[in-house]
TrEMBL record:
One Pfam family from the record: Mem_trans
Main location: membrane
Organism (species): Curvibacter cyanobacteriorum
InterPro entries (alphabetical): Mem_transp_PIN-like, Na+/solute_symporter_sf
Localization: Cell membrane
Similarity annotation: Belongs to the auxin efflux carrier (TC 2.A.69) family.
Membrane-spanning ranges: 6-23, 35-54, 66-83, 90-114, 120-141, 172-191, 203-225, 246-272, 292-312
Entry keyword set: Cell membrane, Membrane, Transmembrane, Transmembrane helix, Transport
Protein's name according to its UniProt entry: AEC family transporter
Domain of life: Bacteria
Membrane listed as a keyword: yes
Amino acid sequence: MNHPVIASLLPVVLFILAGFVAGKRRWIGGGAVRDLSNLVFMLLLPALLFRTMSAVHLEQLDFKPIGMYFLAASLVYAAVLLVQGYNRRGAVLALAGTFSNTGMIGIPLIGLAYGQPGMVTLFTLISLHSLVLLTSGNIVLELAAQREDLQRGVAPQHSVWVTVLRALRNGIIHPIPLPIIAGLLFGLTGWRIPPLLDQPLQLLGSAMGPMALVLVGVTLAYGSVGPHLKGALAMAGVKNLLHPAVVLGLGWLLGLSGVPLAVMVVTAGLPIGANVYLFSQRYGVAEDLTTASVAVTTVMALLTLPLVMLVAGQG
């Protein structure tokens, strides 16, 4: 019970289980899940990100592991796109194979397992995670949609450059990158957050982990996997096992080790982030499979994450 893997995962499992029970008993209605998710992403998570990053000094950050992580993600993304084909469905599934649930599960898990050094490494990654993956994913999706329209003889509504610029704007104006950037800029001033503001930010940030994990359980309670189980299991193989394996292999090749490598590998092994479903919903493609994949990768992570954390610890 005192093993670090078990000790760090057990609270995560218990919070998710509590949310699952609450969802099954309908203590939290299905319509309230979206509102509570907005509360986490729009208030609690930004408070945690801003407060943490305001105490970080840019010159102390190591971006080598981050570059390695995105290189690995691009390889997995390209592999899934190659298998699925260059279309909207393939683009959504490729994003699902590389976009981790860094907010709801990653932050509390990394914090419990690796402490403050791990959190700084994770937040450095998170500062670019959504910006890079969601922006590039949005661009690929838009271009794939235009390609499909042209194949059907439908003229695209916007030029390629307009599509790219809109995707870049949407990637930056996001509740995750903005507070991280704001926190880093505040830290550059050398000022400290006044106690009257710091304490509320600390309380809001500390509520993020439990609330987010409970919501994961509630979402699982309302989800439907059934007909898409086979496809969801295949996505779990890509997200929970292939992605961290590629990150680990590249990390070894580049000579990385210790907490930075472990955080990158474990982050890659996290289940699919909910933002992928929003993409599938927006483009009206693979919605049921994406929903099932989010649920299955989350459940499977209870089995695969201990393995990933143990292997990463050997690095």
